[in-house]
Design a protein that fits this description.
This protein has about 300 residues and is an all-alpha fold. It has one domain: Glycerol uptake facilitator protein (Up-down Bundle), CATH 1.20.1080.10. Helix content is about 65%, strand content about 0%. Helix 2 runs antiparallel to helix 3 and helix 4 runs antiparallel to helix 5. It has 9 helices and no strands.
Length: about 300
């Protein structure tokens, strides 16, 4: 008898796994831009420093001690340059800032100026405790520079030991002008520093942008003060160094006059320059945001940090 062979119908391939995988892929693709835009849109008030860093944890790592030492050494060297050369040598100061910043950037980020540290804290790039430690380190570095300077001058010159190039005392008629010069210069310095952070992976590029910004700020203020306002030696744009320039008056006819002059000096050389630093950082962030930069990483919204 002839046997009939029955052919088995081929199994149908189900397309459900493909559909499921395609759906999951679309979900992932849709999720990445959402995370990207969300992180980039956090904007100005998002934390950009380690959220675990606080007064209880910051001293557990030896890196903070290296950072503080870097700020002390860097600020001391920068203040020495300012004290011995004066602020009317912008090119020399630019090369000095570039060299010092490149040397200590890996240690502390090379703030070297309370103007910059104030802007870093206000834009939440730096925790409050780290910012306070940096400010104290900068004051210590500036004092060490002053101590070295007066010792050097007393040994090589017949001048008194405390005779250093000093900023002229603020006269009441020049208070507004001098304050505006310090304020404008601080904005320029902070803006350049914030933009230099975009190139933080290259210490030399960062230092070059920061040093050039310092030079530009000095040139602007020098031209305005000397050519148009006929003022000389009346700005510094570094609150830590300003104290070493003896901007705080110590003599007057009465206590009220001395106290008023001290308040004017602090406002002109400390408070408003640090406010200018905050404004400079926010201007840099705002301009970067308008150009499509991510405030978290300084790149476009398709940055790789979101995908990690």
């Amino acid at each position: 008898m002839a046997t009939t062979k029955t052919r088995k119908a081929p199994a149908r391939k189900t397309s459900k796994p493909k559909a499921a995988s395609a759906k999951s892929a679309k979900t992932v693709e849709a999720r990445v831009p959402a995370q990207t835009s969300e992180k980039c849109m956090k904007g100005f008030f998002a934390k950009k420093f380690d959220p675990k860093e606080n007064i209880l944890t910051i001293f557990k790592s030896p890196r903070i001690y290296g950072a503080i030492l870097g700020e002390v050494i860097g600020t001391m060297l920068l203040t020495l340059v300012l004290l011995l050369l004066g602020v009317y040598q912008p090119l020399y100061i630019m090369f000095g800032v570039i060299a010092i910043s490149a040397a200590v950037y890996g240690l502390s980020g090379a703030n070297l100026n309370p103007i910059v540290t104030a802007g870093m804290m206000a834009t939440r790039r730096m925790s409050a405790i780290r910012g306070i430690l940096y400010l104290l380190a900068q004051l210590l570095g500036a004092w060490l520079a002053y101590f070295v300077s007066i010792r050097f001058i007393s040994h090589v010159s017949d001048e008194p030991a405390d005779k250093l190039p000093a900023i002229a005392e603020i006269a009441s008629e020049n208070f507004f002008v001098i304050t505006m010069l310090e304020f404008m210069g601080a904005i320029v310095i902070a803006f350049f520093f914030a933009r230099a952070l975009t190139y933080k992976r290259s210490a030399l590029t960062f230092a070059a942008i920061y040093g050039t910004g310092m030079c530009v700020a000095l040139l602007i203020v020098i031209v305005l003060s000397s050519s148009f306002l006929e003022l000389q030696n009346n700005f510094i744009m570094n609150p830590a160094a300003a104290f070493m320039y003896k901007v705080l008056p110590t003599a007057g006819e009465n206590f009220g006059e001395v106290f008023g002059a001290i308040c004017q000096s602090l406002l002109a050389y400390v408070v408003l320059p640090m406010v200018g630093g905050v404004i400079g950082f926010y201007l840099a962030d705002f301009s970067g945001k308008l150009s499509g930069e991510c405030l978290a990483c300084g790149k476009g919204c398709d940055c790789k940090e979101i995908k990690k």
